[in-house]
Design a protein that fits this description.
The structure is a single chain. The protein is mainly beta and 103 residues long. The chain contains one helix and seven strands. The longest helix is centred in the first third of the chain and has 10 residues. The radius of gyration is 16 Å and the shape is globular. It starts with a strand and ends with a strand.
Length: 103
Amino acid sequence: MLKIDNEALNYFKDKKLCFVVRLETTPIECDCCSGAPKNIKALKTMVLFETEVLDKECYDTHEYEGVKVFISKDLKVASDINVYHKAKIPFMKPKFGIKGVTT
């Protein structure tokens, strides 16, 4: 089940945006790995227009009150999906988070 909090829902609906969640892998090198690079995996969340999502077949699509959420097929849905608006910082774009999705 997908739920989007009211503040985030109003932001998405006003601008006709969608929410995209994908896995981002960052290679790092450290002395503890005996020279072999280690990969750090993290969730990457983006707010885009639906037309900017080019590879839709790589995502599972969920919809809540007309707002689409694209979740990469590489990720696991652990429980109910909850999209929320993070605390607003002056002079910065709004930030959003997601709960219920794991790597």
